[in-house]
């Protein structure tokens, strides 16, 4: 019986050690995490304040965008280059159907190394629409 009670005491002692260890470990981790988080957020705040905004968003000049888009549209094989202007509409002025317009928008994406979401691409129906979209896109190159 003394051996049986020793086993119970050992099991209870072992269980208490696990509980105490896990509690202490949790408290230690909370302290470490909060110290780390405070340091990380503090470092990020300092870094954010010291980096100029121009590194986050660089917009191309509208004139450059317009020239490049006009060139892309003029080079499209189904377009009469003499009809291309800054105000030309893809279907009315250039005679492009919806599939051709999609191809022009894809060529513009390639030219500026951007991906235009379908919902936005559907709104681009003229040279001016394309210029406005690309000029306002911070990742256009």
UniProtKB/TrEMBL annotation:
Q: Which Gene Ontology molecular-function terms are recorded? A: acyl binding; acyl carrier activity
Localization in the cell: Mitochondrion
Signal peptide (from-to): none
Q: Where is the Carrier domain?
A: 63-138
> Does the UniProt entry include the keyword Lipid biosynthesis?
yes
Main location (coarse class): mitochondrion
**Gene Ontology annotations for the cellular component aspect, listed alphabetically:** mitochondrion
Keyword presence, DNA repair? no
Q: Which InterPro entries match?
A: ACP, ACP-like_sf, PP-bd_ACP, Ppantetheine_attach_site
- What does the UniProt keyword field contain? Electron transport, Fatty acid biosynthesis, Fatty acid metabolism, Lipid biosynthesis, Lipid metabolism, Mitochondrion, Phosphopantetheine, Phosphoprotein, Transit peptide, Transport
Q: Which domain of life is it from?
A: Eukaryota
Query: In which pathway does this enzyme or protein participate?
Result: Lipid metabolism; fatty acid biosynthesis
State the similarity comment.
Belongs to the acyl carrier protein (ACP) family.
Query: Which PANTHER family does the record match to this protein?
Result: ACYL CARRIER PROTEIN, ACYL CARRIER PROTEIN, MITOCHONDRIAL
Q: What does this protein do?
A: Carrier of the growing fatty acid chain in fatty acid biosynthesis.
Q: What is this protein called?
A: Acyl carrier protein
Q: Name its species.
A: Proboscia inermis
